[in-house]
Specification:
Elements (H helix, E strand, L loop, with lengths): L3 E6 L12 E6 L33 H15 L3 H13 L6 H17 L3 H12 L6 H17 L3 H14 L5 H13 L3 H17 L6 H13 L3 H14 L3 H13 L3 H13 L6 H13 L3 H13 L7 H13 L3 H14 L4 H12 L3 H14 L5 H14 L3 H12 L2 H26 L1
Antiparallel strand pairs: 1-2
Helix pairs in contact: 1-2, 1-3, 2-3, 3-4, 4-5, 5-6, 6-7, 7-8, 8-9, 9-10, 10-11, 11-12, 12-13, 13-14, 14-15, 15-16, 16-17, 17-18, 17-19, 18-19, 19-20, 19-21, 20-21
C-alpha cells in the first residue's frame, strides 16, 4: 500500500520566460510481514534482493490472527477497532517477541500516517529499528519508511541521515532511493551532492531501458541551471521534449538558447511551439512576434500579432496595434501598416503614435494625411520629439508646394537644437527652389 506525496520546489532563479516547477516524490510504504497488505518494498520493483531473515523467532498463531483482524479493520476503515486490537496485543500480559512487535508497530505506523499523525508514525518506525531480533528486511524497510516520513515532515537533515543509514545495509538500492536522497540534499542546499544522486538515479533508469520520470528531469535541469551550465540544460530539455513534449519545455529551451546567444536556435525552439499551436497566451504570442522582429522576419511577426488580435488571444490595445503596424511597415506592407497605426493612435492617450504615423504617410506620398496626422499628434500632446514631427510636417507641406506653411513648420523644428541644422538646411533648400522657380517664370 503506497502513499504518494508531492512537494513543490522553487527555482533559485527564474527562466527568462517561464518558471518551471519541480515536484519531489516521497513514498511511505507500510511494512507488514503477514496478512492481506503484503510486504511493501523500499527497493524499486526492478530490484528485488533476497533479504536475510533471522530464524530464531516466529509469529505466534494467536498474534497472527489478531494482526489479521486488525488489518481487516483497517481495510474496512474501522480504525478505532484496529487500534483496540493492537493495544490488546501489547497489553495482554504476554510479551511480544521482536518479530511480532515489528509487525504490530508497522500497522501502528500505517494507521498514524493515514491520520497524518506523523510524529507517532516516526516513533513507531524508530522503535522497529531498535528491535535487535526483528528480521533484517523489516528493519531495512523501517529505515526507508522513516527516511520518507522525515521528508514528508520537511525534516530533511534527519531524512538524509536515515536514508544514508538504510543505504549501508541495502543490497540493491533502486533509482528511486537515489532520487529521494538527491531531493533531500537539494532541500539542504547541498546541490553538488544532490546532483550526484539525481544523475545516478536517472542513469540507472536509462540503463534498464526505461524513461526517467518527468520531475526527475526537472530537478536535474534545475541543478545544472543553478550551476549556470546552460549547455547541459539545453541537452536535458531536448531529451525531455522527446518524452514529455510540453509547451513549457519549448519555451524554456528557447530561453536557454537566448542565454547562450544562439538567436537562430532560440527562434527555432519558440517557432516549433507556435507551429504546434502550443502558444495560446498573449505574452507567449507577443514574445514570438518580438523574436521574429529581432531575427529580421517582420512579416511573420505581423502575421502572429494579426492572427492573435483576430482570434482575441491578443488584446487590441494601442501598444499591440502599434507593434502590428510597425511589423507590417518593416515587412514593406505599408498599406497594411497605416490602418493599424491609425487605430493604435486613436486608442493612445498621447500623440506620439500620430507623430510616427505622420512619417509613414510621408513615406507613402500621402502628404495631406501626413499633415493631418502630425497636427493630431501635436494637438494631443505627449509627442516625444515635437521637433521631428514639425520636420515631417514641413516636408509634407513642401511636397504640396505649400511653402509658407512649410517654412513655419521648419522654423518650429529649428527651435530644438537637435533639429536646427536639418531644419535650416530645408529652409535654404526651399529658398533656392523658390528662386529657381521664379527664374523660370521670368524666362
Amino acid at each position: 500500500m503506497n502513499i504518494q506525496l508531492t512537494k513543490t520546489f522553487r527555482w533559485a532563479k527564474a527562466f527568462a520566460i517561464a518558471v518551471p516547477l519541480v515536484a519531489a516524490q516521497a513514498i511511505v510504504p507500510v511494512v507488514l510481514e503477514t496478512g492481506t497488505f503484503g510486504k511493501a518494498q523500499a527497493q524499486e520493483e526492478e530490484a528485488k534482493p533476497e533479504q536475510k531473515t533471522r530464524r530464531t523467532q516466529a509469529l505466534n498463531n494467536k498474534v497472527y490472527e489478531k494482526l489479521q483482524e486488525a488489518q481487516q479493520a483497517v481495510e474496512a476503515k474501522n480504525i478505532s477497532e484496529a487500534m483496540e486490537i493492537l493495544d490488546e496485543l501489547q497489553n495482554d500480559g504476554k510479551p511480544l517477541n521482536d518479530y511480532e512487535m515489528a509487525n504490530v508497530l508497522n500497522l501502528y505506523a500505517f494507521i498514524y500516517y493515514s491520520q497524518e499523525d506523523f510524529a507517532k508514525a516516526v516513533d513507531a518506525y524508530k522503535r522497529i529499528i531498535t528491535l535487535q531480533e526483528a528480521p533484517e528486511g523489516t528493519i531495512a524497510q523501517a529505515r526507508y519508511s522513516l527516511a520518507q516520513l522525515y521528508f514528508v515532515t520537511e525534516q530533511y537533515r534527519e531524512g538524509v541521515n536515515a536514508l544514508l543509514a538504510w543505504f549501508e545495509t541495502a543490497q540493491a538500492p533502486g533509482s528511486s532511493a537515489y532520487m529521494l536522497l538527491g531531493q533531500g540534499y537539494y532541500q539542504l542546499q547541498e546541490n553538488d551532492l544532490a546532483l550526484q544522486n539525481v544523475e545516478k538515479a536517472i542513469a540507472m533508469t536509462k540503463e534498464k531501458g526505461r524513461i526517467p520520470k518527468e520531475n526527475w528531469y526537472g530537478l536535474q535541469r534545475f541543478l545544472y541551471y543553478d550551476k549556470e551550465d546552460y549547455r547541459k540544460v539545453v541537452e536535458i530539455l531536448s531529451e525531455m521534449l522527446i518524452h514529455y513534449p510540453k509547451k513549457n519545455y519549448w519555451v524554456q529551451l528557447s530561453a536557454m538558447y537566448s542565454e547562450l546567444n544562439e538567436e537562430s536556435k532560440q527562434l527555432s525552439a519558440m517557432e516549433t511551439a507556435y507551429e504546434q499551436q502550443l502558444l495560446n497566451q498573449e505574452k507567449e504570442l507577443l514574445n514570438m512576434a518580438y523574436l521574429y522582429l529581432a531575427n529580421e522576419v517582420p512579416y511573420k511577426a505581423a502575421k502572429v500579432v494579426d492572427q492573435g488580435i483576430k482570434e482575441k488571444t491578443i488584446e487590441a490595445t494601442s501598444k499591440n496595434l502599434e507593434l502590428l503596424g510597425n511589423a507590417w511597415r518593416a515587412a514593406q506592407e505599408v498599406k497594411k501598416s497605416i490602418p493599424e497605426m491609425a487605430k493604435a493612435a486613436e486608442k493612445s492617450d498621447k500623440g506620439d503614435i500620430w507623430a510616427r504615423l505622420c512619417n509613414i504617410y510621408l513615406d507613402n506620398d500621402e502628404f495631406k494625411k501626413a499633415i493631418e496626422s502630425c497636427d493630431k499628434g501635436l494637438k494631443k500632446g505627449g509627442v516625444k520629439r515635437p521637433d521631428t514631427a514639425y520636420l515631417v510636417k514641413g516636408m509634407a507641406h513642401f511636397n504640396l508646394k505649400q511653402y509658407q506653411s512649410a517654412r513655419t513648420a521648419f522654423r518650429e523644428a529649428a527651435k530644438d537644437k537637435r533639429s536646427k541644422q536639418y531644419a535650416d538646411q530645408w529652409i535654404k533648400f526651399m529658398d533656392r527652389e523658390l528662386e529657381r522657380q521664379k527664374s523660370l517664370e521670368q524666362v
